Amino acid sequence: MLGIFDSGFGGLTVLQPIHQHLPNLSTIYLGDNARAPYGVRSQEEIYQYTLEGVRFLFEQGCPLVILACNTASAQALSRIQKEVLPEEFPDRRVLGVIRPAAEQLAQNGTDVGIFATPATVESEAYVEELKKLNPSVRVEQLACPGLTDLIEAGRHEGENCNQLAKHFTDELIAKAPSITSILLGCTHYPLIEDLFSKHHPEHVKLLSQGSIVAKSLADYLERHPEMLERIDQNSARRYFTTGKDLHSLASTFYGDTIDNWHTLDYLGGSV
Ligand code: DGL
Q1: Residue 269: its pLDDT value, please?
Q2: Cα dihedral 78, 80, 84, 90 sign
């Protein structure tokens, strides 16, 4: 099965397009809702929690795990790839969402903006990735503290979210008036894409990651048929969460009903 990990429900905005593009792939989703949001945590915490999630998905038999979380991709991915996989899981792979989104951004022009969590912004992962892809790209990042909490709590339609979306948009445009596209660099933000759209200037293109990541995964599997062969293709779908309070919000993130959640009491350390 293909493993998909996020700090909470945000990864469902990536899982849905993956199911659309690659409907036969069997998938296991894990949201660490009990410990979300990750974006205000330390690098060490994000690394440890993400590693626990990856280990869980490996234990379920996944040969490939996608970190459908920018924060985990920014703060944990390269350490897992360099320090854990070669030693313990040489035949498994973990991929993130930053590289494919940066590739798309780099094609979109030379002045780009990014909304993301404080930990993603602090890591400079996007800045470095974009520099490698095209050194002439100018990127302005803006940390959006508070947004993930509201979205994860199901308050994405509330006035607070609307105010924050306006505030962050105004701030980013004021800092970088020449930007022509903005990436929603947190997989929770597509849930409030309409709020961002409402406040941002019309000529600026707003990008969400879901379908970008799904296409990039399809390319990866085409280039790695040996990996595709190891992933069951009978459209099985399993959903795990460390959260206790599951509500219709998960289905809102996914865009369709999900009614077979399994709650985990324990995911390594401190759930
Ligand atoms: N959805 C995640 C991301 O893409 C994590 C947000 C959080 O847990 O703070 O960054």
Answers
A1: 53
A2: negative
Cross-strand bridge partners of residue 65: 3, 94
Active-site pick, 62, 69, 144, 161: 69
Question: Cα-flanking dihedrals φ and ψ of residue 263, to 5°?
Answer: -95, 130
Using DSSP, state whether 180 is helix, strand or coil: coil
Judge whether residue 129 has pLDDT over 60: yes
CA 38 to centroid of ligand 1, rounded, Å? 6
- The encoded tokens of residue 56 equal 């869980």
Peptide bond into 37 cis (omega under 30): yes
The count of structural domains within the chain is 2
Angle made by CA atoms 129, 149, 76, in degrees to the nearest 5: 35
Last residue of a domain, one of 208, 224, 243: 208
* 91 and 28 fall within a common domain: yes
The CA–CA distances, whole Å, from 262 to 18, 211, 251 equal 21, 26, 14
Q: For residue 205, what are its two tokens?
A: 């293109």
The answer on 128 and 47 residing in a single domain is: no
CATH number of the domain enclosing 56:
3.40.50.1860
- Which of 168, 160, 47, 163 is closest to 116 using CA atoms? 168
161 assigned to active site: no
Q: Domain of residue 240: give its range.
A: 2-97+211-264
Ligand 1 lined by 209 (C-beta under 6 Å): no
pLDDT, tens digit (0-9, with 9 covering 90-100), for 70-96: 999 999 999 999 999 999 999 999 999
Quick one: tokens of 117?
Answer: 């969590």
Name the 3-class secondary structure at 183: strand
